[in-house]
Amino acid sequence: MFRPLHPKHVYICFLISFAFFIDPSSQHVDDVKKQQMREKVREMFYHAYDNYMTYAFPHDELKPITKSFTDSLSELGNLKLEHLPTDYNGSAVTLVESLSSLAIFGNKTEFEKGVLWLSENLKFDVDVRVNLFECNIRLLGGLISAHLLAIDPTNRLIQGSYDNQLLRLAEDLGKRFLPAFETPTGIPYAWINFKKGVMENETTETSTSGCGSLILEMGALSRLTGDPRFESAALRTLRQLWRMRSSLDLLGTTLDVVTGEWLEYSSGIGAGVDSFYEYLMKAYILFGKEDYWRMFRSAYLASQKYFRYGPWYHEANMWSGKPTYWQLTSLQAFWPGLQVLVGDVAAANSSHREFFHAWEKFGVIPERYLLDHQMIHPTERYYPLRPELAESTFYLYQATKDPWYLDVGEAMVKSLNRYTKVAGGFASVRDVTTMQLEDHQHSFFLAETCKYLYLLFDDSFVAKRNYIFTTEGHPLQVMSSWHDKLPESYFSGNWTFSKSGAWESGASAMSMKVCPSIAPNSRLHEQHRESVCHVPDQKIDHKCWSNRDCGVDATTCRQRSCSEVGFCGLWNPL
């Protein structure tokens, strides 16, 4: 995964090489640890998976304490068995979510059994109201990913015959999504009924991430089926969202799909917005459209300018850029992983360490921690087995090969086994201060948490392949046939350079679509970029005659200006 990708992506910095001496004996110790930890993660996965198959299958998710089930993706989640519709037998969400993990774990037998069962039993023509976003990332993404893995001859996961059954299921599901997009704005409803479409008096409120994180799965579905409606609907949504941004290139958190009005102006990188950023970047990798890059570049620079405060990211008003909430949320922990893809490895490492400090302090990460009050949010003290910290740890280890990230993964594995493992699987934590458990094993624990921890210690599955992972951890292969056009030039190797081998004057790494790290040369002080937005001042002593002599700050991505006494700095407040 982290080799240079298809030539379209001269910018994606999957590998940032660091030159340092590696002691062979130390390398051996790391290899032994990785093998041991890989097996521990494997045991975790099968403890969760086997209990799901025993006590919850074919329903959505496992309740590990009572060894029962919940159909959590629909409004049926809290109903008892005798109250479920007679035509509803569950969507086997955890099985669908587990297929790509089974492939990565090398369990061909269980993968094929899962494919065959789904082919014969999974039906979507049922009277059930479901969340569009969750069904997209879990069911549609899981089916498409498993289909791509099944037809990949290098994996040989199917020993018998496979006739695109999973793709047909995905296409059926995708068609049931389309009525949700029939709104004046083109932005879809957050809820849809599999059989009846949009229900009467359906809520018109949705979130930026909920409607803006559909393009990977629906775009892939169009490329695989030849039906452009899926990708067109998701792309129209993205473009409409982008038109609704503020003059600061910020978006709110919730909006009305009918009126197109923002309902919540506070924005950040956490819940309600998070995967919107992720999907812009990953859509550019997967499909190569410049539209995605242009939107991501502006949105990312705005996030660094208005949300970042040292290693932390607060929330801000989308219109003014002024801070609104100073808080850490567990969902924000995906951000360092995204920054690795961008090439901002130093910034990613800085934030990641703060998230891991929170993990060490509490044993796991609380859902929300109030930075300004130095306390856990009184009503969000839980930890539902989220994967985001494991995900970012995986990306950072791939980028740096720093063994410290292996220690982070080991600490996470120990905590999960110590605090959340029960006889019937792994339970969510209701209160991180007491470690009281909640009777719920989310499907993403198998789709993401276990997967990223396993890949941290054994990346053989992705080492020689080009994949991107959806926000639910489902791998999608990067293929040249899905790209609009090839680039004018391609830079191979772990470093990327401009055509001339030198930086253009006044240009950032992001504007040139290259990694900020460069090889040493005689003009290092002029060419070195500390982050993707950094533009050094014209003079090494920071003296200036005008603002044109000043660059862009590496941390805040704000334009530096020339003071009255002739020095560049951040003199102008936001």
Automatic annotation (TrEMBL):
EC number: 3.2.1.-
Endoplasmic reticulum as UniProt keyword: yes
SUPFAM superfamilies, per database record: Seven-hairpin glycosidases (SSF48225)
Keywords attached to this entry: Endoplasmic reticulum, Glycoprotein, Glycosidase, Hydrolase, Signal
Signal peptide: 1-27
Location of this chain's protein in the cell: Endoplasmic reticulum; Membrane
Membrane topology listed for this record: Single-pass type II membrane protein
InterPro entries: 6hp_glycosidase-like_sf (IPR012341), EDEM1/2/3 (IPR044674), Glyco_hydro_47 (IPR001382), Seven-hairpin_glycosidases (IPR036026)
Enzyme's top EC category: hydrolase
Family of the protein in this entry: Belongs to the glycosyl hydrolase 47 family.
The protein's name in its UniProt record: alpha-1,2-Mannosidase
Organism expressing this protein natively: Brassica napus
Lineage: Eukaryota, Viridiplantae, Streptophyta, Embryophyta, Tracheophyta
